[in-house]
Design goal:
Layout (H helix, E strand, L loop, with lengths): L3 E5 L3 H12 L3 E5 L3 H20 L5 H9 L1 E4 L2 H5 L4 E4 L5 H14 L5 E4 L6 H6 L7 E5 L9 E6 L5 H13 L3 E6 L6 H17 L5 H11 L6 H8 L1 H15 L7 H8 L17
Parallel strand pairs: 1-2, 1-4, 2-3, 4-5, 5-6, 7-8
Antiparallel strand pairs: 6-7
Bound molecules: nicotinamide-adenine-dinucleotide.
The site of nicotinamide-adenine-dinucleotide (NAD) has 22 residues, from helix 1.
């Protein structure tokens, strides 16, 4: 049973993953490249825990204990040397992730499992960067990690059944549901959401309805929690373009980025993070 888990990268996903694990009683080592990044990660964990308390879903005492179970480190070796599982959540860049996996391979116990939270990069390629390709696996979380139920487990070409079973067990121990998918571009969730979003952007481009009405139609008619265009703005239009290009390479024209998506990105309108995407944000 995995007792101590390292999370590498304390950004949006890494901090949420660390929090989910600690809330479920796991000892966590949280690593990032700077103190500033770790402080930011811890602040977002504290904010999220306060929301749980306010909603009556967590006691003050449990929140305090959760925080005590998260130990931060700015040295990678120190963070990972004694853990059973590492979950990598550094930016979506294959070269960077390969480099991180090589270091993890060097610094962790031989039997440790190395998992990646990539949304769409090749788990198999990351496995090949290590001397333990059978112990490398995709553990794809969703934002916000402490709330979202699913973990999409990605079995690389070389991932062993034991590794899949161990990550399935860990996910269940912390109260998550799992699906097991092959290591194919976009897995299930990224491929499904991209197809949906790209088709809705095309409808907007064709002038079939306003952005507001497309989002409203999908929210109220299909019962999705968010409309596709507001969701694209939240994810980031640059990220959506990157996903669409990789899916086009894998599956052909049906994933080709609509002109409008490309032009918005070229204009620097990347969604919420730049204050403008399909919508304009004032805060
Ligand atoms: N944002 C999402 O909704 C979402 C959902 C599922 C999966 N993902 C995936 O999770 C991963 C992380 O995404 P994010 O949104 O948390 O990004 P982010 O930019 O919020 O966080 C990345 C963190 O990694 C740190 N970092 C950079 N280089 C590092 C290194 N060498 N070692 C350790 N830390 C390093 C950064 O300082 C930053 O804190 C990506 O692979 C992404 O595709 C994202």
């Amino acid at each position: 049973m995995a007792k101590t888990i390292a999370v590498v990268g304390a950004g949006l996903m890494g901090s949420g993953i660390a929090q989910s694990l600690a809330m479920a009683g796991k000892e966590v080592r949280l690593y990032d490249i700077s103190e500033a990044a770790l402080d930011k990660g811890l602040a977002s964990i504290q904010k999220s825990l306060s929301r749980f308390i306010k909603a009556g879903k967590l006691s003050e005492q449990d929140a305090k204990q959760t925080l005590q179970r998260i130990r931060t480190a700015t040295g990678l070796q120190e963070a990972v040397q004694d853990v059973d599982v590492v979950i990598e959540a550094v930016p979506e860049d294959l070269t960077l992730k390969k480099d991180v996996f090589q270091q993890l391979d060097r610094y962790t116990k031989q039997e440790a499992i190395l998992a990646t939270n990539t949304s769409e990069l090749s788990v198999t390629a990351l496995a090949a960067a290590t001397a333990r390709p059978d112990k490398v696996i995709g553990m794809h979380w969703f934002n916000p990690a402490p709330v979202m139920k699913l973990i999409e487990i990605v079995k690389g070409e070389t991932t062993s059944d034991d590794t899949v079973a161990a990550i399935q067990r860990l996910s269940e121990e912390i109260g998550k549901e799992t699906v097991i998918v092959k290591d194919r571009q976009g897995f299930v969730t990224t491929r499904a959401i991209a197809a949906h979003m790209i088709e809705c952007i095309r409808m907007y481009e064709e002038g079939i309805a306003s952005a507001e009405d497309i989002d409203k139609a999908v929210r109220l008619g299909l019962n999705y929690p968010m409309g596709p265009l507001e969701l694209a703005d939240m994810v980031g239009l640059d990220t959506m373009l990157f996903v669409s290009e990789n899916l086009t390479e894998a599956y052909g024209d049906r994933f080709r980025a609509p002109q409008l998506l490309r032009k918005l990105v070229e204009a620097g309108y990347l969604g919420r993070k730049t204050g403008r995407g399909f919508y304009t944000y004032n805060e």
